[in-house]
Amino acid sequence: MRRITIAAMGAVVALGLAACSGSGAGSTDDSSGAAADPGDLTVGVAMPTQTSERWIADGDAVEKGLKEAGYQVDLQFAGDDIPTQQQQIDQMITKGADLLIIASIDGTALATQLQAAADANIPVIAYDRLIRDSENVDFYVTFDNYKVGVQQATSLLVGLGVLKADGSKGDAAGPFNIELFAGSLDDNNAHFFYQGAMDTLQEHIDAGTLVVKSGQTDIEQVATLRWLQETAQKRMEDLLTSTYSDGSKVQGVLSPYDGLSRGIITALQNAGYGPTIAQGLPIVTGQDAEIASVKLINDDVQFSTIFKDTRKLAEQAVVSAESFLAGEEPEANDTETYENGVKVVPSFLLESDIVYKDNIQSLLIDSGYWTEDQVASGQA
C-alpha cells in the first residue's frame, strides 16, 4: 500500500490508496519483492489537442505501445484548454496512475499537478514539449528541437536558391524579402525552433541577402498563440496590407508548423500570389509532415516540412516508461540542454529530416508513414 499526502480544508491528511492508487515507480506487488505485473499498472497519457492530426497520431501510438507492453492506459486529449488538461491530470492521479506521460499545452501551467504526482511517487515524462518551472519532471522525450529550427531555416534558404540541398552555396544572391513566424510562446519548443532558425538565417540577414521587410524579428512579435492556423493567416494578411502595399513582393516565409503554413499560404493565394511556387507563390516552410501539407509539397504549393517520425517518439516514450515502472532510470542521450527553469531534465533526443518534393517517396512513403494514395488525396 502506498500512502500519499493531500491537502483538504487546510489540514494535511494521510490517506491509504491501495484500491484506487498506483503503486509508484519500481513498486512491488507483494512482500516477496517481485515486480508488479504490467497489467496491474496504469499509465496516464495527457495530450494537448485533437485539432492536429499529429497529436491524434501521437496519442494513439503511445497508447498502442503501452498496451502492447501490457499496461493499462488512460489517454486524454485536452482540446487546447489549459484548465481541462489540469483537471485531466488531477483525475489521473486521483484514479491511481502509476506514471504520467504529458504533452503540455502550456509548459508553465502544471506545477500543482506535478507536485501532486511527486507526492504520490508518480514519475512524470514530458512528451515532446518540455514542462517548465518544476523540479518534478523526471524525464523528457523529444526531437532535437534546435536542429529542427536549423532545418526549417535551411529549407527556406534552399527554396530561395541561397543554398543547395546538400548545404553548399547556391547561385542566388538576393536580396529576398522574407517574413518570420514562430509558434506559441507558452510552448518551450517554439523558442528552440526559432533560435535554431535565426542562428541559421542571421548571417544572411546581416549580409543583406535576406530582408525582413516588416522589421518583425523578435519572437514576441512573430509568435502564434496556440499554434492556430487562423491566427497565422490573419497575421500574414496584415503583413501583406501593412508592408507590401507598395507593390513589393514577399518571396519567402519561415513557418514552424504545417498548420500555420497552410494559413499563410491561404493568405498569400488570396492576395494574388501563386497558386504554385512555379507561378509566383513564395517559399513556405513547415513542420510535422501533416498529410495535407505533404500533398501541398507534392503539388508545388508548400516548399518543405520537417519530418519528425512520431512513431519513434512514441516508442521511446514507452521504453522510458517501462524503465521507470521497473524501478530503473531511463537511458538519456542529453543531460545538458533542457533546463526548465529549475533543473536540467535528462532527455532522449531523436533526429528529424527535411522533406522536399523529391524525397517524399523515400522518407514518407517507403517508411510506411503515409501511402501514395494519402499523399495524392491529402487525407489520412
TrEMBL record:
It is found in: Cell envelope. The keyword Signal applies. Residues 1-25 form the signal peptide. It holds the Pfam family Peripla_BP_4. Gene3D superfamilies: 3.40.50.2300. Its main location: other. The keyword Signal applies. GO terms for cellular component: outer membrane-bounded periplasmic space. It comes from the Bacteria. Residues 43-329 form the Periplasmic binding protein domain. Keywords: Signal. InterPro entries: Bact_Solute-Bind_Prot2, ChvE-like, Peripla_BP_I, SBP_2_dom. GO terms for molecular function: carbohydrate binding. This is Sugar ABC transporter substrate-binding protein. It comes from Cellulomonas terrae.
